Amino acid sequence: MSAAEQFHVDEVSPSYWRVTFDNGPVNLLDADTIDQLGVLVGRIENAPDLTVVVFRSDKPGYFMAHWDFLADNARVAAMQPGPTGLHPYVDNFVRLGRLPVATISEIRGRARGAGSEFVLATDIRFASEKAILGQFEVGVDAVPGGGPMARLGRLVGRGRALEILLGGDDVPAALAAEYGYVNRVIPDGEIENFTDAFARRIAAFDKVAVAGIKKLVDAATLPDDAEFAAGLQAYFATAGRPERRPFVQLLFKNGMQQPDGIETDLGTAIGKLRQTANG
Amino acid sequence: MSAAEQFHVDEVSPSYWRVTFDNGPVNLLDADTIDQLGVLVGRIENAPDLTVVVFRSDKPGYFMAHWDFLADNARVAAMQPGPTGLHPYVDNFVRLGRLPVATISEIRGRARGAGSEFVLATDIRFASEKAILGQFEVGVDAVPGGGPMARLGRLVGRGRALEILLGGDDVPAALAAEYGYVNRVIPDGEIENFTDAFARRIAAFDKVAVAGIKKLVDAATLPDDAEFAAGLQAYFATAGRPERRPFVQLLFKNGMQQPDGIETDLGTAIGKLRQTANG
Amino acid sequence: MSAAEQFHVDEVSPSYWRVTFDNGPVNLLDADTIDQLGVLVGRIENAPDLTVVVFRSDKPGYFMAHWDFLADNARVAAMQPGPTGLHPYVDNFVRLGRLPVATISEIRGRARGAGSEFVLATDIRFASEKAILGQFEVGVDAVPGGGPMARLGRLVGRGRALEILLGGDDVPAALAAEYGYVNRVIPDGEIENFTDAFARRIAAFDKVAVAGIKKLVDAATLPDDAEFAAGLQAYFATAGRPERRPFVQLLFKNGMQQPDGIETDLGTAIGKLRQTANG
Fold it and tell me: Is B88 contained in some domain?
């Protein structure tokens, strides 16, 4: 992908920003995403009147597909720690969670792997019936790196977190809402207006109250930073091991990272392919 | 309001009490409520055979509307700490949570702000389809004072807690059950019998078992007292700031604290009025 | 019951085991169960390629009924601590929770008391509409011993945990799913295929990834061992007190521990009998 701006920021008002993510046909995350998200989080941290940010996508079918399997991993590995002392990949997510503003993911397409980790780092997740979430990393023999072990266990409970993380299957919107993985499902034709109306409420509220509430909910609900460090370490130790390359090549042969191939049901498909490939 | 008894206690049996709250047309909470709830909690703590207490209201449409905006705040600010060392407002709620008996809120009307904080401090929340919950404080530029940041995050998960607390909107019974804000919804025509039958079960059980179970669930689920202290401090720092007075006056012009005006959809209405008032 | 093997292990493949529990007409747990489960957990801990274990029952209507009221309690009390330093009853459950494999309960019948504690110690609970769960111990004046105070509070939230544990009533499958007590309900005619397909996915995944994910979810979600020690101590202090013997005899007169008597609705029935017996 390119170094062009992946996060398009529409400053609707000083208290309300609308951010559209755009990176290739399925919205992959890559090394540039890490750098640019770091910059964006810094801008939000320093916006004096901002109380609400909505994250969205204009890409049909895709909110954020997942981490780019062709990304420059050497560049990522060499990145310097961010303000929290953590690697920037999780530093971004940790700082996103602690922002003194409400952050909302409006999910109308797929958000798997790193895309799921992104939405889990935002405060509120509204999904349309077209949303599909999931953490398929177990299917490519990796521990997810962006903290879903820490977050999902607290959000949906141990049993459902383990089903999502060890099963690695796709989680359609309705099941995601039943489990608490997303807040609720809003019909796809209404979700833009719904999210906008919800954001405009918060945009009309006082920053002191919004930030004060956030801080106390953060204290009650956010995992310790150490859990994110351990998760990323497990990811680096497991992802991209050479013995997995043939399987990843098989995924690319099936159209991975393209809109109409295996990406449509990636989590489910990986499970099937693994059983065939092993058998 | 008056210093008359706001909590009417019906001692159905030595093991089962039924408490009806009554304070004005919409059941506001005020300085007297704090004093009287403290006395009631003390009575429950010392009732040797009591295993279950049901809290309810006979006021159509209202369980407990919210904190009285006309209450004597100087009197409240001057109150001496309760047995936990906390201000009596949260001391009551903390002690309510730790009682060696089962406490049940039977919610057939509105329970917002301090009323929501009250039901969150009880063990079990049964709601009829007429119940409406919410924490609208953000809409009057305040951090809620009675601990919902500490409690909701653990009860409904971070995402839904932030939606409730930062959106400040009304939460109708069905959504409250979907989120886990209440245990479940029972049809309004059946809820009295349902709650009574549930309470009579517990009333027939041994206090040693009830108290023993409570103590261990408390250890697993209750926030530290420090979280309640921080929440109340944030409330005192944000509530009633002079710049908000014109907006509160606008709410009174719209019938606040009366049964048929803006109280019917207070959370929703405040969001709309704020957008108009600011715009 | 006998010392015959209660856990029938079908090693479907080196990565997938299917375990069928079998102990009398309603699948009671007893002193032998403790010994044999300890052995089984040890086998699973040491199986190098195992990634998934399914627990199930062939007994119509019963997954695991509950602890055998006629078990040799002196033998249980005299058991030496297991590897965690805890009594083997909870040592088994704690080690079951920390296994480096996915454990799944396929629940098509009743799982109450110790049976509920067993499924809560497994990672994932799939239930058919014929499943009934519950912790009825409060109804026989005991604090449950296998940790549900520690587990349910975190899994379903404080309010619903207290309803389950203090009400002691039967929890049918649909309500169990609504509360998060089980992951979800799968039609009884489909659940065997569903669970098998889910297990075969995980069986195709790499042990390093499965174990790595489990370890981090465990860190985020498992209670401290001390909570299990306190729970079992409360059980030993409350269960089997002499004053309760007449009531237990009444339960046996009503067919307890037989498939077609009071076991069918045990939680509900105990509540009714207690009210009659006391009244």
Answer: yes
